[in-house]
Description:
By secondary structure, this protein is an all-alpha fold. It contains three helices and no strands. The protein has one domain (about 10-65). The protein has helices at about 10-25, 30-35, 40-65.
Amino acid sequence: MNDEPKLRPGEQYHAYMHGWHDGAGVKPIRAELSEHPRQGPLYLAGYKDGRDAGKDAAGNAAERFGYQPAILKPR
């Protein structure tokens, strides 16, 4: 039985949004947040959603400007 209190709505929001900002900003996953027993799953869900949003934004920008970024530079 888990005796720890449930996260309040504000704590849930902030755990998720910390993950979202880190994911969208392509920052490393923060161990102190991702490994937290109660906040970790929310942080990781936010991180994934932030990464997905960043990928969508990059695709939209590529289409809008007619540019496809490449890893290799043309010679």
